[in-house]
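Repro:
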Amino acid sequence: MREIVFAAKDVTKRYKNTVALKHVSMEVKKGDIYGFIGENGAGKTTMIRILTGLAFPSSGEISLFGKVGNDLSKERKKIGSIIESPALYLEMTAKENLEVQMLQKGVGSKKDIASLLRTVGLEEAGRKKAKNFSLGMRQRLALAIALINNPDFLVLDEPTNGLDPTGIMEIRNLLLRLNQEKGTTILISTHILSELHLLATSYGILSKGTLVKQMTAKELDEACEKYLEIEVDDSAKALDILEKNFASICTETVGIGKLIIRNYDQETARLLLILSKNGVQVKNMQNVTETLEEYYSKLI
């Protein structure tokens, strides 16, 4: 059984008249890339702040690497994080930013800076000051700062926020490399669910402060609906033929000449044959799996 890196047990967080988290229990296992999902105000950042020691639960408890209570501060030294907007010294270079962060946190060594910059793709930044960095470069520098203590657990709140597609892909590949080559456990909160679907090995879904679902990537794949999408020359005729010949399937039209077929149970060849025999031309056919966005929308 894999070690549980982070666990929350019945955690509630209140701010005056607002309840940000309601009896949330969740766990992140060693080696996971844990996708933390939820609408704005769902409580994701609140839980991340509790995890990293920037806030405390009103009730319930958390554990890190199996430790609780007074031992949490020691275990938090194994964490690297980006929370909300990364704090950078804009008048300094990437190298100088890392030097200052190492001094402030009392971790890392100057001899590691070149390696960190290579890891995040900033080895060519040279004397360029952070104020002149692109948003993607700033995010990569923030990630380098999160890595200065060689963390076992990386906690990232919206690390791709504002990035263009190339920047998002670069961050994704970097996180995959850290996870696969170094075994770094990662918790990542993001609104870009299509991107998260390419990364995560497990998921926690929050809504209005409540954990709605926790599942592995395999369980998500099994839960996502599969259906057949076909394009025909006469959708009304095709729909009538299918309903007469296949009692168990569920069909609906989507747009001009397109049908979605559910519960077809591997009867694709027979389905196509019957349509053809009845004079319906099938122009295109594809098996479709529901996306993470679609699953999330149904769930919430």
